[in-house]
Structures are given as structure tokens and as C-alpha cells.
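Sample entry was shown:

___
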Amino acid sequence: FFMENLLANAGAVKKDGSIYSPLGDASISPVSVEDIAAVAVKALIEGVHSGKTFTLTGPEAVTYTDIAWILAGVIGKPVRYVPVSFDAALKGMVQAGYPDWLAADLVRLMQTWSDGKGSMVSVYVARLTGHKPISVREFFDRHKSLFLAAA
């Protein structure tokens, strides 16, 4: 789960203070594309990781309730998590302009996370780059303005 996917919630947070997802109480361990890029650069420069596969995650597994709580603390306003069905998520993505095939693939992926397959936390970002992966709180701190209504 790319942490940047959380930015898609900015409009709903600004509109009604909510984040919508079909994941219920399932945990995910979002990773920032910035951390992925840092690992890729390190692997290319060092050249010793050729042919190896690393599962990259963020530093923690969080639920959408956790994500809403963390975001609320960062922006200083209430944010609630609203669970929706997988069908509603699919319809919402299509209405937002996602191609049917992409929306269906994303829902299938979310169903695997709902089954518990998204909660693993790996050590590879820290091990390969020498720095801790970006946390959800740090990510929201960096993108705080996107979740706040314009004055």
C-alpha cells in the first residue's frame, strides 16, 4: 500500500471530516514511494542486490481507524473512519473516473488486505537505506495542508 494513496482522502476530509474504506479493522503497513525510491537508488549504486527481492513496508501496521486518529491529531480537527462495502468502494472509484478494470483490481487487492495479508512490517527500508521508513504521522505532517480547507 503506497502511503501516497492516503492523499486521495483529502477531499472527503475537507468536505465532511471522513475517510472511507472497505478495510474495516484490517491492518496495513503503508510505505512511502520516497522510501521505495531510496531503496532503489541504494540497490543501484551498491549493485550487490541484483536478483534479490525485498518486501518494503512502512514502520507500522495501522487500521483505518488509526489512520483517521493520526490525521486528526496532525490537522487538529476530528477525522472519522467510515467503513463502506467493497461494492460501494468499487462504485465510488468508477464514479471518480477510475477505469473499470483498475477499480476491480484495487478492490481485489483490498480484499486480500482485509483477509490480513497487508499487515506485515519488514525491516528492509531501514536495513538498506540506513534510515527508518516514513511513518503515517510523518507523512501527514508533510502533507497537512492538503487536508485542511482553504481559508
Remarks:
- The CA atoms of residues 22 and 84 lie 5 Å apart.
- The mean pLDDT is 94.
- The beta strands are 18-21, 80-83.
